[in-house]
Amino acid sequence: MTYRNGAFVVDTREERIGQVIDSVGRRVHLREPGGGQEWEVPFSSLRLATRDEREVIGLWPQTIKPFRGCAECPELAAELREAQAGDDKLKTSRALLAQRGHWRLEHGL
Asked: Could you give the C-alpha distances from 85 to 79, 81, 89, 90, 92, in angstroms and in order?
């Protein structure tokens, strides 16, 4: 098993979450979420970060494809795109919170 670039994993030696940026042989290069210091970890010392672990440090998926048959997902995605296109940070925050709340309540994410 390998981890794709961009995946969030846990360095089990330190219980530290990192994002995969590269792998060479049996070593994986990680970066702190959102950028920051990089470090190298043996593949055997990694596991995927759970949703709860990602949430604790404020990580969410950047995008989720609308769920098949869900009428609200495309509407919420459109509202977020519209808010992001403007310069109103409050409107963008509200749209993002609405979308994430929907994901959690309706789709268990």
From this structure: 10, 6, 10, 13, 9
Give the model's pLDDT for residue 16: 92
Cα 10 from Cα 6, distance rounded (Å): 13
Q: What does the pLDDT read at residue 39?
A: 94
Q: Locate tokens 């920051």: which residue?
A: 36
Does residue 67 contact residue 107 with C-beta atoms inside 8 Å? yes
Q: Is 28 in contact with 3 (CB distance < 8 Å)?
A: yes
Lowest pLDDT segment from 6-10, 63-67, 69-73? 63-67
Nearest to 32 by CA among 45, 51, 49, 50: 49
- Residue 62: per-residue pLDDT: 53
How far apart, in whole angstroms, are the C-alpha atoms of residue 43 and residue 28? 6
